[in-house]
Design goal:
Elements (H helix, E strand, L loop, with lengths): L3 H17 L4 E5 L3 E2 L39 H4 L2 H9 L2 E4 L6 E6 L2 H10 L4 E4 L4 E6 L5 E5 L2 E4 L5 E2 L9 E2 L2 H4 L30 H16 L5 H16 L7 H13 L4 H15 L2
Parallel strand pairs: 6-10
Antiparallel strand pairs: 1-2, 1-3, 3-9, 4-6, 4-8, 5-6, 7-8
Helix pairs in contact: 6-7, 6-8, 7-9
């Protein structure tokens, strides 16, 4: 049996070795999830990278903000601020996009069979339930692009499971196309069922009020770094509680909300369920 302290030192050694090769790394705690933000960054109070809309590092000296904490700087990796995380780390993760890579995460046998029949061969790494197919190139990350298939590149992290086997292949259009969705999948259900008030009955001061509300809702979804399902539902609930009864919402507004949710990896079904559940809770 290997002593836990040896395992943790091995995680640090692995992280330093990857950093030398230009792969941004971060520690993962039990459950394969990043460490929580430090007290100064809790609830994005730090104001540094709270929304994480674009790829880039976190400026906090602690391993905060998930994928944005990934670094290739050995001084940071071995710093006192990271020491406690390595002592408790259960695994090492890396930011694929920061290394110029895209990981196609295949979760089960059917997904692997699909990849073998559809995607060009590339470097593969075995995982607990399936495989990581790694391509050279960067793209937007997305979860659930098909059953058992996630894309991890920019603004995402992947667990390091070893170098794998095979030669890296350039990121193919076949993979890029997985996140391209028709606008029709963004449309929310039951929009026509929203009551339309009489002229002059709308309580909102100007159309800009609604536009600002939708923009803030989209911003909130875009900024979700964790608990995406809960954030999407809470945002839909907030929009409907303010605008669901006055007849102001249009297909354009709901399309924007669904598009933002799906850009964070939500499936059309999850979007529909969240919207329907929010309407039901409000009695719409």
């Amino acid at each position: 049996m290997t002593h836990p302290a040896l395992i943790r030192r091995d995680h640090l050694s692995t992280a330093l070795r990857l950093a030398v090769d230009g792969v941004p790394v971060l520690p993962l705690r039990r459950g394969k999830v990043p460490f929580a933000n430090c007290p100064a960054c809790l609830y994005t109070a730090c104001g540094g990278r709270p929304n994480m809309k674009t790829p880039g590092p976190c400026t906090c000296p602690y391993p905060c903000h998930g994928w944005a904490a990934a670094t290739t700087d050995p001084a940071v990796i071995e710093s006192p601020q990271w020491a406690w995380a390595w002592r408790e780390a259960a695994a090492v993760a890396y930011h694929p996009g920061g290394a110029g890579l895209t990981v196609v995460d295949l979760d089960h046998a059917d997904a692997m069979a699909w990849a073998q029949a559809t995607l060009p061969a590339t470097r593969t790494v075995p995982t607990t339930r399936g495989e990581h197919w790694i391509y050279e190139g960067v793209m937007t990350s997305a979860n659930g692009v098909r059953d058992g298939v996630d894309i991890k590149s920019t603004m995402a992290y992947a667990r390091w499971r070893g170098p794998g086997t095979g030669t890296l292949t350039a990121l193919p259009d076949t993979v890029r196309a997985l996140i391209v969705r028709s606008p029709t999948v963004y449309q929310a259900p039951c929009i026509d069922a929203l009551p339309t008030p009489a002229v002059g009955a709308c309580p909102h001061r100007t159309p800009a009020y609604l536009e600002r509300g939708i923009a803030m809702a989209v911003e909130r979804i875009n900024g979700a770094s964790s608990a995406v399902h809960a954030t999407v539902y809470a945002t839909f609930l907030a929009v409907l509680s303010t605008h669901g009864r006055c007849g102001c919402l249009t297909e354009n507004h709901t399309t924007r909300l669904f598009a933002a949710a799906q850009a964070k990896g939500e499936s059309p079904r999850h979007c529909t369920d969240a919207w329907t559940n929010a309407r039901t809770r409000l009695g719409l």
